[in-house]
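Entry 14: structure prediction run for Cation/H+ exchanger transmembrane domain-containing protein. Input pasted below.
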Amino acid sequence: ILTVLISAGTAYYLMGRDLMPAIFIGAVLGSISPAVVVPIVRMLDLSENTKSTLVVESAITDVLSIIIALGILKTFLSGHKSIMEFIGTNLIATIAMSLVVGFGGAVIWSTILEKIRKFPNTIFTSLAFIFLLYGLSENLGYSGPIAVLIFGVVLANSKKIPLNIVQKFGADHLIEFTSIEKTLFSEVIFLVKTFFFIFLGMSIQFGNVKILFLGLLLTFLIYGNRLILTRLIISKNTLNNEAAMISFIIPKGLAA
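Run finished. Output tokens:
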């Protein structure tokens, strides 16, 4: 939250006091990328408590960043003059319906997938259904990324979801992705991340000194805030090297 406020406040005063773009920048920079945090944490010699803290924090901030940033983006596209107007008329309904579409899609696909697996060469069908779910949600006026996100969360935690909720959507149970399917998703993610960072590097332009200065300033402010916050919040029993890792592992990745 403090990262969002610091980023938004800095952008607001340095970008012509335009509130909407400033809040959008704050929402985007408030996330911590699990795609970067998880591999780093696995390689470091940290306690399980510290590892869990970093992974859970990155997962929560990433999801919230996506939801808030997409909501603000839809504010621009829908022509609303203020964020409060958009929140009151559209954002809450959009998020709620996207959650329903994502959960319903997960239940439907879980039921269908159990039968599809009986046929050969069907490993890409889940990806195809995800694209269909994304397109359906967007065509209905909801958020495709949020719907797909909930789809993945539901199927990844199918055993933890109460059956009475699942049964309301007309299914007896939910199934999980197999290890082969998870490996496929992992390879696809690796491919997307690789091309994303290539595209990101090609998009960086150093012609505007003001933007470069703003980026450096935000970087120093975010890390400074993180250092102070870490000292105030974490337990005094935490080892110095682990406290340092908690302070500096705040990468901005695919969500940003």
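Notes: The chain has eleven helices and no strands. Will compare against the previous run tomorrow.
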